[in-house]
Amino acid sequence: MTYVVSDLHGHLDEFKQLLEIIDFSEKKDVMYVLGDIVDCGPDPIGLVNDLSVRVNVYPVAGEHDFTALRMMEGYEHMLKTGERDPEFVGEMTDWINDGGGANLLGQGGAYDGRLRSAVGELVNRLCMWQGNPLVPVRDGMETVYDWGVENA
Fold first, then answer.
1. Residues 6+ apart with CB under 8 A from 60
2. What pLDDT, in 10s, does the model give residues 35-65?
3. What is the pTM of this model?
């Protein structure tokens, strides 16, 4: 069976629950995760790590993944240089208030660059599929499973 999901937003436990509900088989099933893997949820690094070791699950980076990477890279730049671009700080504040803080602060409540590295690798690796560029498409598909989470 082939499955397509999207908008996991750092919800590792719910993703694992979904795999149980559909009785996902690592031997015969395939799943495509169409973007928005991080942002908002409680365990974005856990989800990225989980997806990275599944041989039959193919994640594709989405707009939230790109935004999270850009925000974390900008934050690291501010830490290293001390520069504070007011426009970026405002954008980052909005991102954190919309749930991006889970990415920035991680589970320990302090900045953890591991997620930036993991998301950066995810974005860089998944912008191409078998040598062809991927073009993100939004809406137009029926929702099959509702996580019960409001996303921006």
1. 32, 33, 34, 35, 126, 129, 134, 136
2. 888 877 888 888 888 998 898 998 887 888 8
3. 0.72
